[in-house]
Amino acid sequence: MQAVLLAAGEGTRLRPLTEDRPKPMVSIAGKPILEYTLSILPKAIDEIIMITGYKGEKIREYFGDSFRGLPIIYVEQAERKGTADAIEKALPYLNGEYFMVVSGDDLYHPDDLEQCVIGTQQTLLVKETDEPQRFGICLVGKDDLLEGLVEKPKDPPSNLANVGVYVLHQDIFKIPKIIDEKGEHVLAPKIGELAKIRPTKVIRAQFWHPVGYPEDIETGAKYLEMSHEDRKN
Question: What is the dotted CATH code of the domain comprising 2-125+162-224?
Fold first, then answer.
């Protein structure tokens, strides 16, 4: 299975740390965020498709053409037009029905990513949050199947945040574009639409640390000091 790594983010809220590097290359405890993510990809992953944008050359210079034996294909998203636009850049390079999508600028747990690729079906990783207004919120029905996604709701229907990790079928590219108020081609609502015709299993993560602000870096470093067994939130 291939993994599409979304690594085009600029990280304006992390300035000045992102003045000379993209957000996924911001260092936590001595390594770029993206390196931690690549190091915990599931064993089923045999190729990485790296979607780069802002200062993407920094990523290519650091990782080169492979990471721990996994080949890397670099694809540029020259204009930031949303996450759905980003994965469409990977379409010409996809060679299987299913592919994994992982955000390159958050911290995850290896066991959670491994759970996502068990079996042959669409999956979506979620985590309980105390601030559901900040994230895409998932509606979960019988047998832990996804019923819908609501982006940053003012009146959240649940506290299960979409954390930016999916296994998707290529049918996602058949769902019509959904454009948000910022004019971006967004992915999460398309997954909600696809879930109506292709069951999508919701997996609850034991750990997720989004990195959006400078204070998240210090907290992330404390998590990374823990063993994988103790790393839960």
Answer: 3.90.550.10
